[in-house]
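This part of the workshop introduces the protein records we will be handling. A record pairs a protein's sequence with a compact description of its fold. As an example, a complete record with its sequence and its structure tokens follows.

_____
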Amino acid sequence: MLHLKIALRAFLKSKGYNFLNIAGLALGLATFTFVSLYVAHETGYDQWNRNIDRIFLVEREMPNGASPYTPGKLAAAIKDGCPEVEETGRMNTALFQLPFFTHSGRFLIKNWVGADYSLAGMLGIKSKGFHLTPNNTAPTVLLSRRTAEALFPGESDIQNKTVMMMSRSGMPMTVAGVTDDAPGNTNFRFDCIGFSEDITQGKDQSYANQIYRTFLLVRPSTDIGLLSKKIDKIYREAALADTSLVAREALAMSNAPMIFLDPLKNLHLKPHYGSDVNDQIVKGLVVLALIILIVTGVNFTNLYVSQANRRSKEVGIKKVSGIGRQQIIFQFLAEIFLQCVVASIISLGIVALGLPYFNQLLDVNLSISGINGKIAMQFLLAVVGLTLLAGAYPALVMAGFKPAEVLRGNQFEKGGQFSWTKGLIPVLQFTFAIGFVIVLIIINQQVSFMKSEDPGFQAKQVLYIDNLAIYNTPASFETVDARIKAVPGVKDVTVASHVPGGIMPASHEYVAQNRTYAMQTVAVGYRYFETLNIRIKQGQTFFSSFPVDSANAVINETAAKEMGLVNPIGTMIKGRGGDYRIIGVTKDVKSSGFESYVQPTVYLMNDPLGVPKTQIIISVEGNAIPAVLATLGRQWSSINKLDRDNFNYHFLDELYGKLYVKQEQLQSILTYFSILALVIASLGFFASAAQAIHLRMKEIAVRKVFGARGRNLMLTLGTPFFYIILIANAIAWPSSLVIASKWLQTFAYRIDISFQPFLAATIISLLIVATTVCLQITRAVNANLAVRLK
């Protein structure tokens, strides 16, 4: 009880420092908790699936990158030829949104999935009241719980309920039931899923139709590398025998592997076929959280030690009274542990208050209840670890005080001069903080570059309408085109299979000058390039006055370079079931953003194999968007009679902006981490400066007695601290340059790193140090000389 009273009095005597210390520690622990919750969320995708280590997605290696899509027949060929594969299953996703109608109203199915029955068991998809087994033969439609609640509010049993597809009087469909929510995060989210014995039945079975995602459940202890080679051989032989595949000649000449097996456990964070930005964010957050936690602990130690001299006489008297060294160590460790506990409670309060904003920032749905046993154990270990790391040193220092020296008041007079050993910790702290700031500025520059750089098309003042009707021929779109153009404020109208920033067009094989190339195919209508303001580099675009354009093609700059065509106008290319004459070359369009290079692209007016043109694109004048939307909304049932109940519009600039939302999240995260790092580094520097200057108080007093002026004292005392910042900058510059360069390499189109971020970080750090040190030195210089010299 006596020790507790002494600890409480000591705490209140220096409550300013102690509250500052606890606040810094609470911030560090809150950061650690935020990151732990996010990392658990991101790394938990499909971890609940007991077969996660045995499930793989079959991918194709394409000349311009990996593709997750494979032919429909490949799954059966793999199962027949690879005994180490226990089960196969296929999945495909609708490329358009589908409206469902019930007595409750209209609901837009944004994610419609078709799958083999075998896939349900592999991916852990279950339904109450309906058994999803590979033995099922009849097609079955299941709704997600969220979709079922929207379509049939308040109804607990929806088995055999009927919904109308397309329109209120459209095609009826019977719902078999509702799927159970996954036990945790999953890569497979859907509004509606249709199961069948064979989802490829009645569809194009050629190897040219590669639209399915094929999953494998392999047997335990399977050599995945060897299995990949076997499947590669199966694919190659079957593809070469398929006369519909234009690229079979190129496939025959290539010795590079065509098949890659991507583990299910990698599909969220680092898919082989996509961006690994999720993995970068997770790893970066883990490193940053550990750095901040360590720096926080170091600051805690420094601030505690800086106040140790105020309790030196207490320790001296205790030793004279016979209290042993171990008891003193235990007392100070207990005090530090109590401060850590208080800091941890405050940190949980910070987490509870900050989670809504954190969720909004990273587009997740985390809650304080998500702190499971693993996270709680990590948190407890962090608190205990901080107590030992931050408490052991000050406890040993204070327990080691010599009673005779302490009671004479000389314990802290030795070693008062600045030493590089004492300066090492603030150097490291500011190295991290400066590094954060430099990397943050470079990220800001790259994000600003992506937002301001010309993507090759106009996204502002452009609408696109998800449309169920297919307008693959110019004649079928004429009436709709005329009606929309008649709306006041509309500049241009067109129709296309894809819009920039949307679903990436599939790559198909084309032959030009006896060579085969993989190029994306976009089916377009008249005035597509004019509506999106895509500039023409050579030749011309499609015009309604030239009906022969149905046999023509327009390519982009990258396609011309890929084919080695200096003057491509008039060159014939073959693919997609036809022969086409190139009539124009467009400027490149960064339709997939800045992380991937522009792909060679062919624009066709007429695609015999039927890439569906369903996206109606409208460019609008000035501020006429509200009026245009109001008019279209009123007239849509008569404008588009095939899709009368569905006026579902979007803004193209919003869609394109989603391509760099992850980078904006990274930018926001690093902004807060940089601010936190600077605050914590400033606290640490404050502690170091306070301790160092306190140890020189008698020296300052003596200098003032001999006539030293405040300005001279500031220069003398402050110089070592500015050396610390210069050294921290010298270390931070090359390390942050390496980190930023590695991050920028993930972009196909990126900025050049300039001197500006490094200069800005240096100025910021110097201002912080100048403010912190000047405050401490001013306080010391203005102190009472008589008290200090006594």
Summary: The CA atoms of residues 536 and 586 lie 4 Å apart. The radius of gyration is 34 Å. The chain has four domains: 1-43+274-414, 52-266, 430-453+660-790, 468-645.
